[in-house]
Amino acid sequence: MGAGDLFDDAAMAVGYAYDRPPVHPHLMTRLAGTDAWGGQVEVAVDVGCGAGASTAALISLARRVTGLDPYVSMIRAARAAVRGATFVVAGAEALPCASGSVDLLAAAGALNYVDLDAFARDADRVLGPDGMIVVSDYGFGRPEGDGFSDDWPERFVRRCPRPASTRIDAASFAGTPFRVVVDERFAVSIPLAPAAYLAYVMADTAVAQAVAGGTPPDEIRAWCAAALLDGFRAELPVTFECALVVLTR
Q1: Alpha-carbon dihedral of residues 243, 45, 18, 156, nearest 10 degrees?
Q2: Domain chopping of the chain, boundaries
Q3: Rounded to the nearest 10 degrees, what angle do helices 10-18 and 72-81 cross at?
Q4: Tens digit of pLDDT for each residue in 67-96?
């Protein structure tokens, strides 16, 4: 099974729709506070939208919002979870958009498994003269609290290695028609209860890969619960390291 195929799973889609923490609104608030942002646009397209959480964060930024994902399971979950946007099964390399029709192309942790050169070529086709690409992502959430083990994320990845993927950052777009106008790193803190954090962990692609490899999900859940128990007994702030890159022509 390829890494991208892990997303073509109904259970994972439900986890993405309802168990991922609300980091995307913080990313889009950060975008709106940059000099690159000129106000609400007409058309925004969310590439690799998953179950729609990143698409929902765009609704206040554009009059018309469409989420695209190559996996039917994700699109079904997005249509059930999000109102105010249209969702279409489509990949990043062949965008189902008319030439020059898009003002904002967003990709939230979604370009790691695509042909980036093909995406950039089609992005150049569909974006209008003043169009922009907004690439955002956030790392694995780290609970902050007295007595909580600082190496928890590292222990989790040792227990459930993540699928290989291509790192996407500002330098990835060298040689494309686009230039970087924003490249920011910042942290977002969101309070989560232990049960909510465990549900988020179980929706991680590392867990999906382990389950696809034959590890029972209950076994992973039990290991995570035991590893978290000593330091995570009440609501704690969880820190997500975030990245935001904005590109224009």
Answers
A1: -30
A2: 4-141+163-189+239-248
A3: 30
A4: 999 999 999 999 999 999 999 999 999 999
* Predicted confidence band of residue 229 (pLDDT cuts 50, 70, 90): confident
Q: Return all residues near 22 (Cβ < 8 A) that are at least 6 apart.
A: 53, 190
Q: Find out whether 141 and 238 touch, Cβ atoms under 8 Å.
A: yes
Split at pLDDT 50, 70, 90, the class of 1 is very low
Q: With the C-alpha atoms ordered 223, 224, 225, 229, is the resulting torsion angle positive or negative? A: positive
Q: Give me the helix-helix angle, 205-212 and 217-229, nearest 10°.
A: 140
Distance separating alpha carbons of residues 180 and 113, to the nearest angstrom: 21
Give, as one character, the DSSP assignment of residue 56.
H
> Residue 66: how many CA atoms within 13 Å on its side-chain side?
18
Residue 2 confidence (pLDDT):
52
What is 4-141+163-189+239-248's CATH number, 3.40.50.261, 3.40.50.150, 3.40.50.300, 3.30.1370.10? Answer: 3.40.50.150
Cα separations (Å) of 46 from 53, 68, 96, 200? 10, 6, 12, 22
| Contact indicator for 68, 96 with CB cutoff of 8 Å | yes
How far is it between the farthest Cα atoms of the chain?
55
Q: Which tokens belong to 36?
A: 């690159």
